[in-house]
Each structure stands twice: as structure tokens, then as C-alpha cells.
């Protein structure tokens, strides 16, 4: 407790005990007072309450009110102390952004949703809400708890005819920060006017609007259980065209790549419309962009490639791209177990349909990769795909490769 805490030695400087959180014993960065008058670091006291504690850690008195009041005076004193000790390598703590207040959130949502309010007033409210939502997950949770999603959906689709309202676009940018419920996703997917409106926004002159539209398409597809409703969305040609175009916007808008991959994968989960992705040259774009992706997005891209390899037109498109097979071969065991499984599955599909792909795979060194895969700790499905591919390509190995490979002689290729 405060009176018994020894001074904290921080890079040779003693931190005054009243600058330290009684819970973590660390220098407070965002001191807040509880109803008992005690001050704690916000993160520590929030964790204390979140784990079910209902008493003040210092006084043990019941917390009748869980409101946290920023202790601005103490925070400024701590900042001044940090500045005074900068010579010892102590950095000034930043002024924390305060969490959104429920009353303010309600007021802003009412201001944005009221059609009787002036346009600029509604637009300003949406922008302030977006700023709060960008600040923290806690703010997003607070905003969402006030029926924000329902209000935002109404605003986004309030003028589906023109598709050019700044108000609609600002509401869309805020809406995609939240996870929609299944019923909310179904309400969008089942309304053809709303789907057509999203397809128009995917071709908007603003890349930000297009990316936000692609993000909402992905959210709705993932959140909709009905296969018929998912097919209704993916059956719109402009949806695939717009998403494929978003994928090509990496250089001008980095967020586009991540959103584009997610949306394309969600669309390709609908079997009957995968050919539309091929028609928009999504296959070529996936190969061209694969090297630019982080782990999670690379896994999703490889899963999409495997899905498209399951249709003849998809196989043809990938075979025609000179980098497809070499890139898939080098991906094995490089990114993750899932990525390896998808790459092996795509190679199996391509090599089953194309002798040229078989030759390309052998030239790219797939023998070594598959042997390593079979003997690795990768998933059983990945190993089965590798064994099937080994069996398929066995007649294509150069004789010297087989003769010189002890691993190949010892590897059992089980029939399937």
C-alpha cells in the first residue's frame, strides 16, 4: 500500500511512491480516482474490476460507483517529474486520450441520426464518433452498445439512389469498425437495393470509399449463414469487379490489400460464383500480390488460390501465370502450417490438370520441399496432399534426383 511502498529505482532515479500505482507498483501513465478517493493507473484498476473485484484495493471499502475520474493534477505532476529527469533517460508520459462518455455518445448518435438536423451538424457528429472509435476498442464497444450499428446502417443506405452523399460515406467508414450481428448482415444481404448500392460504391472515385465498401461486403458475407443470401451478393458482377480492383490499389492505399484479400476470400467461398473471380483476373492479381502480404493475409490468399484451383477456369488462369508454380513451391514450409497446406493443395490441383505445371514444379525444386513436408510436424492434411503430389510427380523426377536422394528412397508414398 502507498505508505509502505519503497521508492522505485528507475534507471538510477527514485520514483516517488505517490506516482506509482498501488496495484502494479509502476509509474502511473493515466491516473484515475475511484469513489473511495484512492488513485490508480487506469489499466490496473480496470483489470482489477474486470476480474470480479468490487472493493477498493487499498481501503478494501466496497466500490459503490465504478466511475473512474481522471486525476489531471497528479498526471501533470508526473509529467513534470518526467521532464525534470529527462537527463536520466526518463521519457515524458503522453497525455492519455480520455474514454468516451456514454452521455456524449448518445448525444452524438442522436445528432447524427436526426434527419431534421442540418447536414453539417450530422456530418460533424459522425466524424467525432469516428474519431472516438479510432481511439480505442473500449470506445468502439461503448458506441456499439448504444444501438450505433442500427443507426449507421440506416444512414449508409438512406440515399441508395445517388451513392454520392458524404454523409453516407462517413457513416460507412464508421460502420465497418464494428462486427455486425447475423440479423443485421441478413438485413443487408437480403435487400437487393442495398447490395447494388454497395457494388456502386466499390467503383467509387475515392479509394477509401471503395475499401470501406469492400470491408462491409466481407463483414456481411462472413456474418450471413444463409448460402442463398451469400450467393445473392456474390452473383452481382460489379461486386467481384470492385473487389478485384481494390486488390490492385496497394501502392496508393496499403489498407486496400488487406481488405481486398478478405473480401475476395469471402466471395470465393460461394462455389457457384468463383468463375466471376477468374473473369476479373483475380487469379493473376493474387499471384502478383502474394509476396506483399503478412502471415495472416498470405494464408487467406493461398486459401483463395486453392479454392479457385478447384474450377477449370481457375486452373487455367494460374497455369498461364509463369510465377504461380514457383511461388507456391517456395511458399511450402515458409509462412505457416496453414499456408503450407493451402500451397500444397493448390499445387496438387494444378499438377493434376497440367503437365506443364508438373514440369515447372520439378524445376522449382518441389521434390525437396515435399520430402521435408512429409517429415515435418505440419498438419496431417498437408502431409496427405504432399504424399499425393509425390505420387503424381514420381514419373517426372530426373533420374539423378531420385538416385541421389536417400530421403526419397525412405519416404513412403501412401496411395489414396
| Multimerization state | single chain
Global structural class:
mainly alpha
Strand order of the largest sheet: 4-3-5
The count of domains is 4
* Beta-strand content estimate: under 5%
Mass-distribution shape: globular
Pfam family, one: U-box
Function: Functions as an E3 ubiquitin ligase.
InterPro entries: ARM-like, ARM-type_fold, ARM_PUB, PUB22/23/24-like, RING-Ubox_PUB, Ubox_domain, Znf_RING/FYVE/PHD
GO biological process, one term: protein ubiquitination
Structural summary, described in words:
It is a single chain. α7 packs across α10, α12 packs antiparallel against α13 and α19 packs parallel to α22 (380-393). The strands form two sheets. A three-stranded antiparallel sheet has the order 4-3-5. The longest helix is centred in the N-terminal third of the chain and has 17 residues, at 119-135. It has helices spanning 42-50, 72-84, 102-113, 119-135, 137-144, 148-156, 166-175, 182-189, 192-201, 207-223, 227-234, 237-247, 255-268, 274-279, 282-289, 295-308, 312-320, 324-331, 337-353, 355-363, 366-374, 380-393, 399-403, 406-410, and strands spanning 8-10, 13-15, 31-33, 39-41, 69-70. The N and C termini lie far apart (67 Å). The protein has 416 residues and is mainly alpha-helical. It is 60% helix and 3% strand.
List keywords for this structure.
Herpes Virus-1, two-stranded antiparallel sheet, 5 strands, 416 residues, mainly alpha, 3-stranded antiparallel β-sheet, single chain, disordered N terminus, disordered C terminus, 24 helices
Amino acid at each position: 500500500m502507498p505508505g509502505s511502498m519503497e521508492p522505485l529505482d528507475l534507471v538510477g532515479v527514485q520514483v516517488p511512491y505517490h506516482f506509482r500505482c498501488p496495484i502494479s507498483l509502476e509509474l502511473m501513465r493515466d491516473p484515475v480516482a475511484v469513489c473511495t478517493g484512492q488513485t490508480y493507473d487506469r489499466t490496473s484498476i480496470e483489470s482489477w474490476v474486470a476480474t470480479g473485484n468490487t472493493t477498493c484495493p487499498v481501503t478494501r471499502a466496497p466500490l459503490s460507483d465504478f466511475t473512474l475520474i481522471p486525476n489531471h493534477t497528479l498526471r501533470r505532476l508526473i509529467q513534470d517529474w518526467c521532464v525534470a529527469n529527462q537527463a536520466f533517460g526518463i521519457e515524458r508520459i503522453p497525455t492519455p486520450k480520455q474514454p468516451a462518455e456514454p452521455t456524449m455518445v448518445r448525444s452524438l448518435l442522436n445528432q447524427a441520426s436526426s434527419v431534421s438536423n442540418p447536414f453539417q451538424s450530422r456530418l460533424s457528429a459522425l466524424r467525432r464518433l469516428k474519431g472516438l472509435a479510432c481511439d480505442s476498442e473500449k470506445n468502439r464497444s461503448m458506441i456499439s452498445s448504444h444501438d450505433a450499428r442500427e443507426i449507421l446502417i440506416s444512414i449508409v443506405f438512406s440515399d441508395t439512389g445517388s451513392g454520392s452523399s458524404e454523409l453516407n460515406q462517413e457513416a460507412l467508414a464508421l460502420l465497418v469498425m464494428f462486427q455486425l450481428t447475423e440479423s443485421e448482415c441478413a438485413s443487408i444481404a437480403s435487400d437487393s437495393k442495398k447490395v447494388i448500392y454497395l457494388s456502386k460504391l466499390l467503383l467509387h472515385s475515392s479509394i477509401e470509399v471503395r475499401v470501406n465498401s469492400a470491408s462491409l461486403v466481407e463483414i456481411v458475407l462472413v456474418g450471413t449463414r444463409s448460402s442463398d443470401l451469400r450467393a445473392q451478393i456474390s452473383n452481382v458482377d460489379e461486386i467481384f469487379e470492385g473487389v478485384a480492383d481494390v486488390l490492385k490499389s496497394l501502392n496508393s492505399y496499403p489498407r486496400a490489400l488487406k481488405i481486398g484479400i478478405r473480401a475476395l476470400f469471402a466471395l470465393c467461398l460461394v462455389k457457384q460464383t468463383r468463375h466471376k473471380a477468374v473473369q476479373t483476373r483475380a487469379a493473376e492479381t493474387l499471384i502478383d500480390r502474394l509476396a506483399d502480404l503478412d502471415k495472416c493475409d498470405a494464408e487467406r490468399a493461398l486459401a483463395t488460390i486453392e479454392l479457385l484451383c478447384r474450377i477449370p477456369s481457375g486452373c487455367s488462369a494460374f497455369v498461364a501465370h509463369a510465377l504461380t508454380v514457383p511461388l507456391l513451391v517456395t511458399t511450402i514450409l515458409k509462412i505457416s502450417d496453414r499456408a503450407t497446406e493451402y500451397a500444397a493443395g493448390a499445387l496438387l490441383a494444378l499438377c493434376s490438370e497440367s503437365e506443364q505445371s508438373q514440369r515447372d514444379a520439378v524445376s522449382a525444386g518441389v521434390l525437396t520441399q515435399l520430402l521435408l513436408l512429409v517429415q515435418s510436424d505440419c498438419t496431417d492434411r498437408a502431409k496427405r496432399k504432399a504424399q499425393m503430389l509425390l505420387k503424381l510427380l514420381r514419373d517426372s523426377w530426373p533420374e539423378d534426383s531420385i538416385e541421389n536422394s536417400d530421403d526419397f528412397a525412405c519416404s513412403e508414398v501412401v496411395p489414396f
